[in-house]
Amino acid sequence: MASNTTLVPEAREAMNRFKMEAANEVGVNLKQGYNGDLTSRQAGSVGGQMVKKMIEAYQNSVK
Fold first, then answer.
1. Residue in 45, 56, 55 with CA at minimum distance from that of residue 22
2. What share of the chain is helix, strand, coil (3-state, %, to 5)?
3. Could you tell me what percent of the chain has a pLDDT over 90?
């Protein structure tokens, strides 16, 4: 299975919204569809922000 396959198809739209929100927070202009013009730094900052928010959500749920 590919690593970018969504295990729960219904979650695809929520993940896209989450990605757009994270990109907005770090100042990266994402567009719908292909974003191959992003630099590695921009893509990494979006992914890093997503991970940061997921960790924060988990920590808040454990409290």
1. 45
2. 65, 0, 35
3. 73
Tell whether the model's pLDDT for residue 47 goes beyond 80: yes
The tokens for 38 are: 């992003």
pLDDT of residue 36: 92
Give the span between the Cα atoms of 12 and 14, in whole angstroms.
6
Structure tokens, 56? 């924060």
pLDDT higher than 80, residue 19: yes
Residue 16 structure tokens? 């896209």
Task: Write down the pTM of the prediction.
Answer: 0.79
